Amino acid sequence: MKQNNQNTALLVMDMQAVIVTMISNATSIVNNVAKAITHARDHKIPVIYVTVGFRKGMPEISLNNKGFAAAKERFAAVNIDEFVKIEPSLAPREGEVVVAKRRVCAFTGSDLQVVLSAFDIRHIILTGIATSGVVLSTIREAADKDYRITVLSDCCTDGDEEVHRVLTTKVFPGQADVLTVEEWSKK
Q1: pLDDT in tens, 12-42
Q2: How many other CB atoms are there within 10 angstroms of residue 95's CB atom?
């Protein structure tokens, strides 16, 4: 059965060069995400990039937020402009939207919902680092917002392979279709 690409967008989440260098299977993930981007572009599916970033001094980070508060100290000396740069081999084309978020979920602290509404998007295809972070959080909120969701399992990764496996095989299927990039590109 042929997939209906109307009202569909591919979200490329947290594929920032600095983040990509922190993962062990970077080459494989980057290659798979590149295939997904090519497929989306070839089929006139909008590609929307989502990055995590903060203002200088990171005023958005509360000390009450355990994960981000720990990162605030680590990233205090980081050049934020460099931190938000997308992996060059996956870089957006002219006219493709880049959304900046301030938390783990792609919707939190960003204008993603406004962009999706403007494009009349009802089906989102998710890729991202990390499976237990941006992908999980975004699925949960997108499901509550009544989006149709597809996760490209081989376009996501996590620091813990078992967590990735459990999420993509046991948790995500309750709210999303889970496919490989090859399966998706054949639909």
Answers
A1: 999 999 899 989 989 999 999 999 999 999 9
A2: 6
Q: Is the CB of residue 164 less than 8 Å from the CB of residue 132?
A: yes
Tokens found for residue 11: 């979200």
Q: Is 70 left (phi over 0), alpha (psi -120 to 50) or beta?
A: alpha
Q: Map residue 150 onto helix, strand or coil.
A: strand
Angle ∠(87,20,43) on CA atoms, nearest 5:
50
**Residue 60 φ/ψ, nearest 5 degrees:** -75, -15
- Residue 160, phi-psi category: left (phi > 0), alpha (psi -120 to 50), beta (remainder): beta
On the question of pLDDT at 2 being above 60, the answer is no
Overall size of the chain counted in residues: 187
Two structure tokens written together for 126: 């998710």
Residue 2 Rama label (left phi>0; alpha psi -120 to 50; beta): beta
Do 153 and 168 contact (CB within 8 A), yes or no?
A: yes
